[in-house]
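Translate structure to sequence.
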């Protein structure tokens, strides 16, 4: 297995920031209204279509395989447990951690003179918790699983990774929004289902389980429609991040100790915590065959990839601390250049 592929994937992701950075510096992508259009395009068009594609264009999979269905249910449960566990741990840690308020240009659309310092510090705590809980499971996680899974198990492993992303999309619009806003009312069951990405998933599942109507898989030009929009997710996310990166000082990436704690939670503690939780299944060989081992491996791997790129778009959308969100994403992703190859080495021992 070539570890350099992981490194080059992350470097490629960083390179997608360059256009946004340059446009912002040249004042060609300036003001919250310009970025708001990109954020809405990402959250309400590209991400839902990515969710549709994940199931509608799934290949070499029998949707009515009872073993597959059962395993998808287990992955859903493990992904739920893992992300809730990390969310609770993050809330606990950052609640008691001394936090300095963000700088004046750090909170989108807010007049800092009217916000108490403790409320500003809470915005940073929310970003730290979000970054620790939610991983870049779609843009880095799924390609990473594709790379490490043996050829005979690859199709199943990718489906399991897609199920993990479904859970991610359900939680990011509930406890994720709660982390960013501090509003307990954001945790509602209907928001876990009625949000753009999950609605896209439901459409994708319809095509997956009723292949007779899946014209995306049957008619070649239509699959290109899905691919073109779905493939815009990473570039648009990184353009938004690049434009916000233009507003911060490089040295700030390395002077916030809380960012290192967040990165450690995301890259080391999160997968280790889920592994410990699932250890009884490992020790008892509960899932038996080797191909079923990916039911455990996939959630652990996806909990160990860098912070979600969508964090910056969500921070823009919900008036959170964008400054800290950009720093958290960049710091966590840079440190993953060390952590991900280490994780890959452990998995291949």
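Result:
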């Amino acid at each position: 297995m070539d570890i350099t592929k992981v490194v080059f994937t992350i470097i490629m992701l960083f390179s997608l920031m360059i256009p946004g950075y340059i446009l912002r510096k040249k004042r060609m992508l300036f003001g919250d209204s310009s970025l708001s259009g990109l954020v809405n395009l990402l959250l309400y068009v590209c991400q839902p279509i990515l969710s549709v594609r994940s199931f509608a264009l799934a290949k070499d999979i029998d949707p009515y395989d009872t073993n597959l269905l059962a395993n998808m249910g287990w992955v859903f449960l493990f992904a739920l447990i893992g992300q809730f566990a990390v969310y609770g741990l993050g809330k606990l840690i950052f609640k008691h951690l001394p936090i300095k308020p963000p700088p004046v240009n750090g909170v989108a659309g807010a007049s800092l003179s009217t916000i108490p310092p403790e409320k500003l510090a809470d915005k940073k705590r929310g970003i730290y918790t979000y970054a620790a809980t939610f991983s870049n499971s779609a843009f880095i996680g799924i390609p990473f699983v594709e790379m490490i899974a043996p050829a005979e198990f690859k199709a199943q492993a990718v489906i399991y990774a897609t199920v993990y992303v479904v859970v991610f999309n359900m939680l990011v619009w509930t406890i994720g929004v709660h982390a960013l806003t501090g509003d307990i009312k954001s945790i509602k069951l209907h928001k876990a289902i009625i949000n753009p990405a999950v609605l896209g998933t439901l459409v994708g599942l319809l095509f997956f389980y009723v292949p007779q109507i899946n014209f995306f898989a049957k008619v070649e030009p239509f699959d290109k429609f899905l691919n073109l929009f779905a493939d815009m997710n990473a570039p648009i996310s990184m353009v938004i991040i690049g434009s916000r990166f233009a507003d911060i000082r490089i040295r700030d990436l390395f002077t916030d100790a809380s960012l290192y704690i967040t990165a450690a939670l995301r890259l080391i503690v999160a997968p280790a915590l889920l592994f410990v939780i699932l250890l009884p299944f490992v020790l008892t060989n509960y899932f038996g065959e080797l191909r079923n081992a990916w039911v455990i491996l996939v959630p652990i791997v996806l909990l160990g990839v860098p912070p979600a790129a969508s964090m910056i778009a969500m921070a823009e959308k919900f008036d959170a601390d964008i400054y800290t969100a950009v720093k958290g994403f960049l710091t966590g992703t840079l440190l993953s250049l060390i952590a991900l190859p280490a994780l890959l080495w452990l998995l291949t021992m």
